[in-house]
Amino acid sequence: MDPALEQRLADLESRLAHHERMAEEMSEVIFAQGQTIDRLTAQLKRMRDRVEAAEYAIASPQDDRPPPHY
């Protein structure tokens, strides 16, 4: 086989290996980001529920009436 062709083939194989490794690393990063997003979404929902519960506990039917001096 021609040495130039062998070198070209070796370069292509090296590039392919590099791209495969990068794709695997990016897949791992995307997976970790998905887990973080899921965790933050659940945390946000819990916080929203707590705020709504606190607002409900603070609000009372008397809040809708005018003050006694009217």
TrEMBL record:
Q: Quick check: keyword Lipoprotein in the entry?
A: no
Record's superkingdom? Bacteria
- Asked whether the UniProt record includes Transcription among its keywords, one would answer no
Per the UniProt record, which residue ranges are transmembrane? Answer: none
- Its name, as the record gives it, is Protein SlyX homolog
Q: What is the lineage of its organism?
A: Bacteria, Pseudomonadati, Pseudomonadota, Alphaproteobacteria, Rhodospirillales
Organism per entry? Azospirillum oryzae
Protein family membership: Belongs to the SlyX family.
Q: Which PANTHER family match?
A: PROTEIN SLYX
